[in-house]
Amino acid sequence: MITNCPKCNNKLNFSDAQQEKIRGALATVGSGTLKLKCPHCKDQIELLSDGSSADWRQKPVGASKGGKSPDPPKPPDIDWLTQGVFEEKETIKDIPKALILINAGATRDKVTGSMVESFFQPIAVDTVAEALEQMQIVQFDAVIMQSNFDNKPFQTSEFHDFMKKMPMNRRRYIFYALLGPEFHTLYTLEAASYSVNMVVNERDIEHFKNVYKRGKVEYDELFGPYINALKEHGRN
Which residues contact 217 (CB under 8 A, 6 or more apart)? Predict the structure, then answer.
């Protein structure tokens, strides 16, 4: 585990609990890298699975002068590791993931931050194509989509159509929410008419963390017994 930032050389004073969480995350990256932010210079630090710096990948040995190094796979963004979000007894194992389909800007930042505070690992995408690709390789517990994401109305969005047609043995485990100025926050009948689990008006974005919690509790109270019954009978 590195002890100093490779960019500013300041000492990284991670607590024992933070180091344990980082080691747990490193165990899941395989041949990729783990990205976090230096608390001093705010620059990004990339770590290999053994905890050493991955900065050498930016200038590989033998690269020709003026040649451009190939970009490594995009690492997961887990800046929250150094933000003190978790209590000391929290574990990084089995962190639920949330797919964020919101156009870049303040709204996406607020929703992403709210999901981190709710102990999710958010993964934000910029296009419908990226979102569909992520759905093929990652098991998401929550999906939050802006009604005009990627400059397409959600009613005609390929992603929204994908979610509506998803087999129920997978769909019932994903909490799907729509966010936009046309919706009425936590109006369940409106949500059902759009085949989603929750709708949120953008004017309530400052309270998104509590809105999400309320919507998820209501969903679990309604469908939890049914899902548990399916599991007891060996059905997903």
Answer: none
Query: 131 and 191: one domain?
Result: yes
Q: Does one domain contain both 108 and 44?
A: no
User: String of b and e for 125-148 (b: at least 16 CB within 10 Å)?
Assistant: beebebbeebbeeeebebbbbbbb
Contacts 24+ apart (CB under 8 A), 200-204: 202/107
Do 53 and 107 belong together in one domain?
A: no
Instruction: Express each pLDDT in 167-214 by its tens digit.
Output: 988 898 899 999 999 999 999 899 999 999 999 999 999 999 999 999
Contact 5, 12 (CB under 8 A): yes
The domain in which residue 220 lies consists of 96-236
Both structure tokens of 170: 């997978």
My answer on whether 104 and 213 are in the same domain is yes
Does 56 share its domain with 106?
no
pLDDT tens, position by position, 206-225: 999 999 999 988 888 876 66
> DSSP class of residue 35?
E
pTM for the whole structure: 0.58
